Amino acid sequence: MKKQAALLAIAIMIALSGCGKASDESAAGGEHEAASGNHAGGHEGMEHSDSGEVPSGLKTAAEPAFPTGSKAVLETEHMSGMKGAEATVVGAYDTIVYAVSYDSTTGKDKVANHKWVIHEELADAGEEAYEPGTKVVLKADHMEGMDGAAAVIDSAERMTVYMVDYKPVTGGEWVTNHKWVTESELSKPQQGDETVS
């Protein structure tokens, strides 16, 4: 019993400090998996808050479903504590959105099906979308070991992506300028629930 309590305490500490190992993220419903199976999510080392700087050439969405300043509820679990969290949209951009698998520059396990990287975060990206299976180099730095990593495109779709601020449902500090969530990963707050504290 003491061993179980100690393991639970460790799991809670990991979840509260950011992205955890497989057992923590699987329990939280993580959507990504490492190719080795040692940890789910591919978001270990995720930078929870960001400066808010966006890549050059990224176009602000003309008529997003969730305009800048609007409230939303996160319907995804990129990181522990996201799903169900109230969020404020701080940016909406029209671009090509990719799920990618990549080899971390830190030498850690391969990250499979990482969501999301945008077209402007790929080295030497032209105007056209990359097809699934195309090899690329990442310029994104929202996770440790991403910038400069060799990657393969898993999927590509032109859509609006959002940068959001949110307070994790697991507690802790507000996460600011989280990159990226898609429209399908957001929902409107319940009526009378539009304010985020």
Task: Give the structure's gist in a few sentences.
The protein has about 200 residues and is mainly β. It has helices spanning about 1-15, 20-30; strands at about 35, 60, 70-75, 85-105, 110-120, 135, 150-165, 175-180, 185.
Radius of gyration: 17 Å
Would you report the number of β strands?
9
Number of domains: 1
Distance between the termini: 38 Å
Q: Biggest sheet, in brief?
A: 9 strands, antiparallel
CATH architecture term: Roll
Tally of individual helices: 2
Instruction: Provide the low-confidence segments as ranges.
Output: 1-48
Helical fraction: 10-25%
| CATH topology name | SH3 type barrels
Our estimate of the beta-strand percent is 25-35%
CATH superfamily: Domain of unknown function DUF1541
Which CATH class?
A: Mainly Beta
Based on secondary structure, the structural category is mainly beta
Question: Residue-averaged pLDDT, rounded?
Answer: 79
Shape category: globular
N-to-C SSE string, H for helix and E for strand: HHEEEEEEEEE
